[in-house]
Design brief:
The chain is an alpha/beta fold. The protein has helices at residues 11-19, 37-41, 47-53, 65-72, 88-100, 116-124, 144-150, 173-185, 209-212, 241-251, 260-271, 273-296, 323-334, 360-373; strands at 25-26, 83-87, 106-111, 127-132, 134-136, 139-141, 155-161, 189-193, 216-221, 233-238, 302-303, 312-317, 336-337, 339-340, 350-354. The chain contains 14 helices and 15 strands. The mean pLDDT is 95.
Length: 378
């Protein structure tokens, strides 16, 4: 008898479906400020005319050669034959997990993290162990020795996310090498969600995980760091030819191929990616200064977990009520959307704040207005 996969609700998307397009002050978004098609095409002379003359037929399953060439330029050890384009990041995660995992496989997943990185494995019938980031006085930390202790004889996959959603934690080069050593020694695959890569504040970009480990897959997307979520273009990069070929065949049952117009626009964006990333980093860094000043006014109410990279952070609020109720009241009364920790199955009073939007200061002011009116921290 065939058992059909049953997926639990994607808590983040259910929550966003309720508030994202109605709340006027989005203070939790994980994507950066977007731009118009017109502004994107301005980056390249003649691009607008080429765009209007481009066809609306099917594209290649792997993605257009031009787009894959631009993506491959981001990597040092992977060429176009290791790049597979998907519709956003979610399709890539879903397809990969279904290709490499079997029921009763053991998966180690960094935590807290984007739900599908462990939920798809769970739905397949895998055993999932959480490798938790820990709060310290210096922010978030991870323990490599703990990872070693989680490995079992049937461990098939380590799933990680750096820069991390929701904490903004960045796995260091030493940690990348240590994870690679553990995975290689135990014949374990690695899936690394790297959708915020390029938003390192110090400009010091670490290698993609798939450049370091031959059995790793790196996930990239146009939605987050580049702020072009409407394109719905993501990709995986890998040196593992077997996994790559199996992903192509599985993709025949999902999207088959991406939008030709989206692939054209994504190609233009990547050709000028450094300019877009610098623009978005400046927005984030300006907003972090505003945020730091805000948190300094409420030292007893909040733990300010300053992110290491990316457009989001996971802050703690010291209140005598569940954070989910606080966030519901905030969005109901002031239209300010924050993401409570229970969305990440994280059992403490944390919330996700987003720094990638130009209206951050206005949204934060509304948040502070709510705090004052409800006598929090004063």
């Amino acid at each position: 008898m065939v058992e059909f996969m049953k997926m639990n609700d994607f808590k983040l998307e259910v929550y966003f479906n309720k508030y994202e397009f109605t709340a006027p002050y989005l203070l939790t978004q994980s994507d950066c400020e977007t731009m118009t098609i017109k502004d994107l095409l301005k980056f390249e002379k003649g691009a607008e005319e080429k765009f209007l003359e481009s066809g609306l037929g099917y594209t290649e399953v792997q993605g257009s050669p031009e787009l894959r060439e631009e993506i491959a330029r981001l990597y040092s050890n992977i060429d176009v034959d290791g790049i597979l384009v998907h519709v956003g990041a979610q399709e890539a995660i879903f397809n990969y997990m279904n290709v490499v995992l079997e029921p009763n496989d053991h998966v180690i997943c960094q935590f807290p993290v984007y739900q599908s990185l462990y939920e798809v494995a769970n739905s397949i019938g895998c055993e999932v162990s959480k490798w938790e980031l820990k709060q310290s006085e210096h922010g978030w930390t991870m323990d490599i020795e703990e990872l070693k202790g989680l490995v079992k004889s049937n461990t098939k996959l380590i799933a990680i996310n750096t820069p991390n959603n929701p904490t903004g934690y960045v796995i260091s080069l030493d940690e990348i090498n240590a994870i690679t050593e553990i995975a290689r020694k135990n014949n374990i695959l690695v899936f690394c969600d790297e959708v915020y890569k390029g938003l390192e504040y110090d400009g010091d970009r670490l290698p993609w995980f798939s450049d370091v480990y031959e059995n790793a897959v790196s996930l990239g997307v146009m939605s987050k760091a580049y702020g072009l979520a409407g394109l719905r273009i993501g990709w995986i990069a890998t040196q593992n030819k077997k996994i790559y070929d199996e992903l192509i065949r599985f993709k025949h049952y999902t999207s088959i191929c991406s939008s030709s117009t989206s692939e054209f626009l994504a190609t233009i964006a990547l050709k000028h990616g450094d300019k877009i990333l610098e623009r978005n980093k400046k927005i984030i860094q300006d907003n972090l200064k505003i945020s730091d000043s805000f948190f300094e006014r409420y030292p007893e109410l909040f733990v300010n977990n300053h992110p290491q990279a990316g457009p989001i952070a996971f802050h703690k609020i010291n209140i005598n009520q569940p954070v989910e109720g606080f966030c519901e009241d905030l969005v109901t009364k002031k239209g300010v959307l924050l993401l409570p920790a229970n969305i990440y199955a994280f059992n403490d009073n944390y919330f996700r704040m987003g720094y990638g939007r130009k209206n951050f200061e206005e949204s934060l002011a509304k948040f502070e207005e709510y705090l004052i009116q409800n006598r929090f921290g004063k």
